């Protein structure tokens, strides 16, 4: 089970649940793969300009940060439960948890102190 306080997000790959996490090493790998900084990636997500390449790179970095030993080719062959929409949501959640924490975007119920 993923722990959002550690920045973890679950994704199902080929029927197996995996935990993703953006460690410092995973973020560095992500920047190298995309040829730019993570801030530019965050901006693309915020502006709704995210590409399949961005999502795949982010999912790969998260999986690697979570201990997965696969590579980009293995990810490209994998079946992600929920397809691209689920992968894009998981990628966006990874970014939120890495940079803003698990309570980011949380709406308090009326009457909450």
List keywords for this structure.
mainly alpha, two-stranded antiparallel ribbon, disordered C terminus
Please characterize this protein's 3D structure.
The protein has one domain. The protein is globular. It has 113 residues and is mostly helical. 50% of the residues lie in helices and 11% in strands. The N and C termini lie far apart (29 Å). Mean pLDDT is 88; it is low at 107-113.
What is the strand and helix layout of this fold?
Layout: E1 8-13, E2 16-21, H1 24-34, H2 38-46, H3 52-65, H4 72-77, H5 83-99
Antiparallel strand pairs: 1-2
Helix pairs in contact: 1-3, 3-5
Mean pLDDT: 88
- The count of helical stretches stands at 5
User: Tally of extended strands?
Assistant: 2
Q: Structural class, from helix and strand content?
A: mainly alpha
Q: What is the terminal separation in angstroms?
A: 29 Å
Give the oligomer, counting copies of the same chain as homo and different chains as hetero. Answer: single chain
Q: From N to C, what is the helix and strand string?
A: EEHHHHH
In the predicted model, the low-confidence regions spanning at least 5 consecutive residues are: 107-113
Q: Rg from C-alpha positions?
A: 14 Å
Q: Largest sheet, if any?
A: 2 strands, antiparallel
Question: How helix-rich are the residues, as a percent range?
Answer: 40-55%
**Count of the separate structural domains:** 1
Strand order within the widest beta sheet: 1-2
């Amino acid at each position: 089970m993923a722990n959002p306080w550690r920045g973890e997000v679950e994704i199902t790959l080929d029927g197996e649940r995996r935990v993703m996490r953006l460690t410092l090493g995973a973020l560095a790998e992500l920047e190298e793969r995309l040829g730019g900084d993570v801030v530019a990636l965050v901006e693309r997500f915020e502006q709704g300009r995210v590409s399949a390449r961005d999502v795949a790179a982010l999912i790969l970095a998260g999986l690697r940060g979570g201990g997965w030993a696969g590579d980009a080719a293995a990810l490209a062959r994998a079946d992600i439960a929920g397809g691209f929409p689920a992968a894009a949501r998981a990628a966006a959640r990874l970014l939120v948890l890495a940079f803003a924490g698990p309570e980011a975007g949380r709406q308090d119920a009326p009457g909450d102190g």
